[in-house]
């Protein structure tokens, strides 16, 4: 390699010396410090995201009495019905998102194990975390293990296969499985999702990237419960399909529990 470079460019370049200078102890220590600092900030943001979301889910059932107080006894049935619907969709969204992210993380881990990519558990965990962030998370969780495979192996075959399989997993889960499970009620269109990522990311940093999409989904569901604001909620989502019927959302935890209990699915009502 060194001889080829010297012949091609008519210059004497000591590649080994250049690499040694580049990968000096000082450079490696600074790079390691930067990586550790970034990972610490990321972990801290995800920790607070988890705390916020868990506290919100646990506190949600206690707001029924407060809503009755706020409504002043007027339209109490409509307010209570809207609240219960919102609560149902929020729990469904949390269950579905956790189910999808766990599936992605485990699949990435298995692929890395099968092809001998180092730090397989780390890449699976990173894929699980980053799948909470649309667009950006899927790209990063594919690139990291693929670059690790490129550095680890002497040939291009294994890195390309790893890149291909991880891309198939991300596209399949993001474009096929997630839309089927979520349904139109819990999905945001691309423009709304991108706006949410930019706005909340600039406001709260990494925490905003994690919290932005769940907050927008909650806001969309709330808007759709009242005739006066339903149009704004529809603007944030997807149109009805060609038959004029909305896709219903599925909760995988409910489906699995019903199958084990041999209870038929009660949600087999015909669309209105």
Task: Provide structural commentary.
The chain is mainly α. The protein has a domain at 76-183. The protein has 12 helices and no strands. It has helices spanning 2-9, 15-22, 25-59, 63-71, 76-114, 120-130, 136-152, 157-182, 190-204, 206-224, 230-236, 252-260. Helix 3 (25-59) runs parallel beside helix 10 and helix 10 (206-224) packs across helix 11. The radius of gyration is 24 Å and the shape is elongated. The model is unreliable at 8-12 and 242-272 (pLDDT under 50).
Helices and strands in order:
Blueprint: H1 2-9, H2 15-22, H3 25-59, H4 63-71, H5 76-114, H6 120-130, H7 136-152, H8 157-182, H9 190-204, H10 206-224, H11 230-236, H12 252-260
- Outline the biggest β-sheet: none
Class of secondary structure makeup:
mainly alpha
| Dominant shape | elongated
Number of strands: 0
Helix content bin? over 70%
Overall average pLDDT:
73
Instruction: State the low-pLDDT regions, or none.
Output: 8-12, 242-272
Radius of gyration: 24 Å
Element order: H for helix, E for strand: HHHHHHHHHHHH
What's the multimeric state? single chain
């Amino acid at each position: 390699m060194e001889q080829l470079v010297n012949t091609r460019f008519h210059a004497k370049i000591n590649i080994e010396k250049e690499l040694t200078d580049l990968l000096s102890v000082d450079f490696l220590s600074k790079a390691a410090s930067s990586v550790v600092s970034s990972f610490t900030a990321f972990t801290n943001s995800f920790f607070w995201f988890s705390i916020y979301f868990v506290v919100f889910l646990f506190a949600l059932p206690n707001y029924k009495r407060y809503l009755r107080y706020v409504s002043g006894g007027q339209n109490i049935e409509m307010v209570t019905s809207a609240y219960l619907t919102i609560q149902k969709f929020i729990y469904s969204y949390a269950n579905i998102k956790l189910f999808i992210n766990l599936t992605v993380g485990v699949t990435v881990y298995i692929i890395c194990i099968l092809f001998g990519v180092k730090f397989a558990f780390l890449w699976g965990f990173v894929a699980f975390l980053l799948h909470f962030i649309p667009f950006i998370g899927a790209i990063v969780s594919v690139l990291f293990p693929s670059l690790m495979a490129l550095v680890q192996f002497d040939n291009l075959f294994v890195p390309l296969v790893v890149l291909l399989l991880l891309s198939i997993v991300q596209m399949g889960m993001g474009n096929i499985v997630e839309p089927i499970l979520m349904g139109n009620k819990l999905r945001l269109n691309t423009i709304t999702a991108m706006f949410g990522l930019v706005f909340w990311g600039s406001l709260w940093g990494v925490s905003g990237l994690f919290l932005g999409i769940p907050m927008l989904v909650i806001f969309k569901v709330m808007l759709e419960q009242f005739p006066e604001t339903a149009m704004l909620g529809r603007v944030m989502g997807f149109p009805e399909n060609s038959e004029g019927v909305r896709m219903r959302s599925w909760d995988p935890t409910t489906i699995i529990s019903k199958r084990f209990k041999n209870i038929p699915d009660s949600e087999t009502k015909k669309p209105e």
